[in-house]
TrEMBL record:
It is found in: Cell membrane. It is a multi-pass membrane protein. It comes from Kibdelosporangium persicum. The keyword Transmembrane helix applies. Coiled coil: none annotated. Its main location: membrane. It holds the Pfam family MFS_1. This is Purine ribonucleoside efflux pump NepI. Residues 9-374 form the Major facilitator superfamily (MFS) profile domain. Keywords: Cell membrane, Membrane, Transmembrane, Transmembrane helix. The chain crosses the membrane at residues 49-68, 75-98, 104-121, 133-155, 161-183, 203-228, 240-259, 266-284, 344-363.
Amino acid sequence: MDRKLPLRALIALATAAFVTILTEALPAGLLPGMSTDLAVSESAMGQSVTVYALATALAAIPLSAVTAKWRRKHLLLSAIVGFAVANTVTVISTSYALTMTARFVAGVAAGVVWSLLAGYARRMAPEGLQGKAMAVVMAGIPIALSLGVPAGTFLGGLVGWRVTFAVVSGIAAVLIVWIAMLVPDYPGQRAGERVSFRRTLTIPGVAAILFVVVAFVLAHNVLYTYIAPFLAYAGGDVDLVLLLLGAASMAGIWIVGVYIDRRLRLLLIASTVLVAVAAVGLTGSPYVAAVLWGLGWGGVPTLLQTAIGHGGDTAQSMLVTAWNGSMAAGGLVGGIFLDAFGPASFPWVAVALLAPVLVVALAKVDAKVPQTQG
């Protein structure tokens, strides 16, 4: 049996994750130019990120059911084609409505990609190396956030936001060829099998992991979404904090990749504690806290998608919906606390959300995958 990871195929999947995150986050750095060209306010243009996240959350579960019997490679290629088309439409659009429609389509494609990536990585990897395969694929997330978005924002400032989206379309086009040539194909669900989300929830560990997803992502996004007003209150340079967070996230995912196949639970416990300590420490030592935050947060997507992997693609689609719904809710919850109690409340909101995560992580509820636990 070949004990080597199929790195070229896994890096193609990591690039798919990179394109997905980059497409989602780019408008945040390009808002002034986009809003000017499309003749809308920056707040209205900012909803292009919201529309994308909502489309991802809404599409993941129903599309998982509809496409359950599709060949996996055909489905993945269809999603990447969706990114190429949606970003190309964004490049040429002069209409706010058309741009928002393209963003919705891209969000739907993202829901498909996130539902596929974890299962794909697990199926390609030799037994005992599935966690490392997941870490390779999920590395596309921090790379997109720490390098892709700043580079895209810089490029947009030099030559315009449309060129930035055109580059992303080009990457998607290359990725289509890459996947077609190097990524193996797998069958979907067998004929006669039915997708049952209720039955999936009864698989030991799945419901608990979904709870962890909601609480952890809420805690992170309350802090991340409102990091600028928080640092204006607590002191600290936003750009430097985000740079340190991104760099430390890269280190965090590397650490997870090394140990996940033997110490999944221990890594989840450590991640929870690190992010909680970072949340409290942001007030006094924002730069040290940013490093701890990144070390804790960077590997969380890999940990949770690996932990729920025994539930199959249906469980993955439920995780995608929970994740993106919690991202959207993080902005809402943070806004409520900002208005009611001010930015000083954010660390304690995060700690309150992470406390039950620690309880669940310690409870050993994911007994279906003992070989990956610490």
